[in-house]
Specification:
Helix content is about 55%, strand content about 15%. With about 190 residues, it is of the alpha+beta class. The longest helix is centred in the C-terminal third of the chain and has 24 residues.
């Protein structure tokens, strides 16, 4: 309900795969400390990353799925640029059931449950989660009282209560019903 969509693309050098595979797993199954440790190991092992973000305003303007595709497309373009790779020679493994519309010419393979089935998807997911968690900690300091560092912007009971009490911030997604309701209640007061 708050914060940006954060996407990441990863390229793993063949020599790094064996080094990182014991630590890299589905980001949802790793503690924050394990994700930080995995990211440190990946960067030290030469894994390259590209990042993309979609702001709450963009999410509200185009919808969450389109904003996610925009962020994913930006992440892939940055990774290809960083790696000096030819997009027409790349095979992109895309986490989930969809191809990224904004990348014509790139060969793409959707991978459902990609975190569990692909080392590069798991690596990208860990990196995206670490970046977003770090950003939510920054937003927590900027917007005290919402608990953003703890719940990371998800719709927890504590977050919903803070929304009712304080109203939405500029980092909240107004197109999401609970945020929209809180904004309406704040206007009525």
């Amino acid at each position: 309900m708050a914060g940006p969509v954060t996407a990441c693309a990863a390229w793993i050098p063949p020599a790094a795969a064996a080094l990182i595979s014991p630590l890299v797993n589905d980001s949802k199954k790793l503690s924050p400390a394990r994700r930080e440790k995995a990211l440190r190991l990946m960067t030290e092992s030469g894994v390259r990353f590209g990042f993309g973000f979609a702001s709450p305003e963009e999410i509200d303007r185009v919808n969450i799925l389109e904003a996610t595709f925009n962020a994913m497309g930006a992440a892939v373009r940055r990774l290809l640029l960083c790696a000096g790779a030819d997009p027409l020679q790349a095979l992109l493994l895309v986490d989930g059931p969809h191809r990224i519309k904004r990348l014509p010419g790139c060969l793409q393979e959707p991978v459902v449950d990609g975190d569990a089935r692909s080392l590069s998807i798991a690596a990208a997911s860990i990196c995206a989660k670490v970046l977003r968690d770090r950003w939510m900690a920054v937003l927590d300091r900027r917007y005290p009282g919402y608990g953003l560092a703890g719940h990371k912007g998800y719709g927890t009971a504590a977050h919903l209560e803070a929304l009712r009490r304080l109203g939405p911030t500029a980092q909240h997604r107004l197109s999401f019903a609970p945020v929209r309701a809180a904004a309406g209640a704040a206007r009525e007061q």
